[in-house]
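Feature request disguised as a bug: please show the residue count (398) next to SDR family oxidoreductase in the output. Example input:
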Amino acid sequence: MITLSGRRYLVTGVLTSDSLAWHIARALQLADAQVLLTGYGRTRRITELAAAELPRPAEVLALDATRPDDFTALGASVADRWPALDGAVHAIAGAPADAIGGSFLTTAPDSAERALRTSALSLHALTTALAPLLERGADGGSVVGLDFDGTLAWPGYDWMGVAKAALESVCRYLALYLGPRHIRVNLVATGPVETVSGRGVATFGALDERWRGEAPLGWDSSTAAAEVVAGPVLFLLSPLARGITGEVIHADGGMRHTGMGLPAAPMGADRTTNVANRTADVGHPTADVAHPTTDVAHPTADVAHHTTDVAHPTADVAHPTTDVAHHTTDVAHPTADVAHPTTDVAHHTTDVAHPTADVAHPTTDVAHPTTDVAHHTTDVAHHTTDVAHPTADVLGRS
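Example output, currently without the count:
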């Protein structure tokens, strides 16, 4: 349990008690920290109602992220109450209706700019306005922003996705320039969370369904705010993370590093051997074979029906013996002779000699025109499949 007794934090972005920021403020108070919130315009009254539901009612200061002068005024308001600030939470995001929902190609420039200003540039404005207070924190200051993976393109997220990519870059530059002042800046990227803003994304349901079905650790968007996201934010705000800055921590159930989601088979023997129409991982896979008969995939090929992973580029092929739904041969080392080929690969047993030699059986003579390798996008003799540094896509595997 992290204890933040006597420390002071500002939390932006609270609208209702469903807000991610509200759950972070609650976690801070439960860790014995003091908390201030921000709200804006007509919704400030709603924020005040949510603030009253915290373990200890919190004061709500004015902040409209679209008005630069509001950040300067916010810094002065915090300084009137506290001599120093230990951390701040940036939970500000927003975009006009024509900047999300599939309208990316026709979004008006003003709408795109507003999405960027509200969702990304506001991190810079908030952090620099609070910097004089943050550098007087007990262990320096920590700023944590909320993110949604900005390295990928998400249908319907559109200019908000562009803004998140910008947010991640702004985070890194703030970390660079404020590090000497002992101010850390990091982000926590989440999966889809059921909040007012989350449900405003037209494709939220599709994203949520994917996370629920594929996240290795599981995902429940209705409880993630309290059970998944608040903890990493609390850690980054605490002295325990004093050596971390410029980072994006992915609290997303493991989806960040999952190309296909969970296998269909349950955990156990079936999960590692029942791999029809899937890829059999062998050793340290570094490339994908295009087809189980003769084709060697190009390093940028789609692997929709590619079912054999090649392990290390400089070792030998040693006893391929796995019958994977009559399709998959596990290859241990791909550049020397096959010792005892015993695998029935879709009833096409192929003795492989050397990547630059002919296949022994005339029915699949790779070196000669009956199955010309040149027509399979891979010149075996010249090793156009770069196994040492693979770039093979794994999209389309189901």
